[in-house]
């Protein structure tokens, strides 16, 4: 059994979802129907493990505010329900991305052949530059 589960569950009361009017073209309907979804999820106030909270807060993602709140706006679909599902899917996508433990880096050493090829190419490049000198008559 791995240390991190494949899928994380978030309680519904931790997600704040609000219907807003969508932007862009949509004809007469766009001004009277609130089909876009504005989702807010506070990382610090969530029931996630501290390891996941630290990783989420450490992400360089424009959807995460300085206060540790994930803000997602979904307005791709004309249906409010589909936009709600899309917003929740994106939230889980962000959370599940940090559940995978980062791969540990092992230092590697360049092979003798690759070092030799590098030095040979440097010598060859130097020879090309030497031939560019002034021509003496």
Describe this structure in words.
- Helices cover 35% and strands 14% of the residues.
- It has a three-stranded antiparallel beta sheet, covered by helices on one side.
- It is elongated and about 85 Å long.
- The protein has three helices and three strands; from the N terminus they run ββαβαα.
- The protein has a domain at 12-99: 2-Layer Sandwich (Double Stranded RNA Binding Domain), CATH 3.30.160.20.
- It is an alpha+beta fold and 137 residues long.
- Mean pLDDT is 79; it is low at 1-5.
Distance between the termini: 79 Å
* Share in helix: 25-40%
Spatial extent as radius of gyration = 27 Å
What value does the average pLDDT take? 79
Strand content: 5-15%
Strands side by side in the biggest sheet: 1-2-3
- Shape estimate: elongated
Q: Which class best fits the helix and strand makeup?
A: alpha+beta
Order of helices and strands: EEHEHH
The CATH architecture category of the domain at 12-99 equals 2-Layer Sandwich
Total number of beta strands = 3
CATH class of the domain at 12-99: Alpha Beta
List unreliable stretches of 5+ residues: 1-5
- Number of H- or I-type helical stretches: 3
Task: Using the coordinates shown, work out and report the CATH topology of the domain at 12-99.
Answer: Double Stranded RNA Binding Domain
How many strands, which pairing sense, and closed or not: the largest β-sheet? Answer: 3 strands, antiparallel
């Amino acid at each position: 059994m791995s240390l991190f589960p494949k899928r994380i569950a978030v309680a519904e009361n931790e997600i704040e979802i609000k219907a807003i009017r969508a932007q862009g073209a949509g004809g007469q309907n766009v001004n009277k129907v609130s089909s876009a979804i504005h989702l807010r999820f506070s990382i610090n106030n969530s029931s996630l493990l501290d390891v996941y909270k630290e990783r989420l807060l450490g992400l360089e993602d424009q959807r995460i505010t300085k206060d540790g709140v994930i803000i997602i706006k979904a307005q791709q679909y004309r249906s409010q329900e589909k936009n709600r599902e899309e917003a929740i899917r994106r939230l889980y996508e962000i959370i599940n991305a940090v559940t995978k433990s980062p791969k540990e880096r092992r230092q590697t050493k360049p092979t003798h052949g690759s070092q030799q090829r590098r030095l040979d190419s440097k010598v060859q490049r130097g020879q090309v530059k030497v031939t560019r000198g002034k021509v003496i008559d």
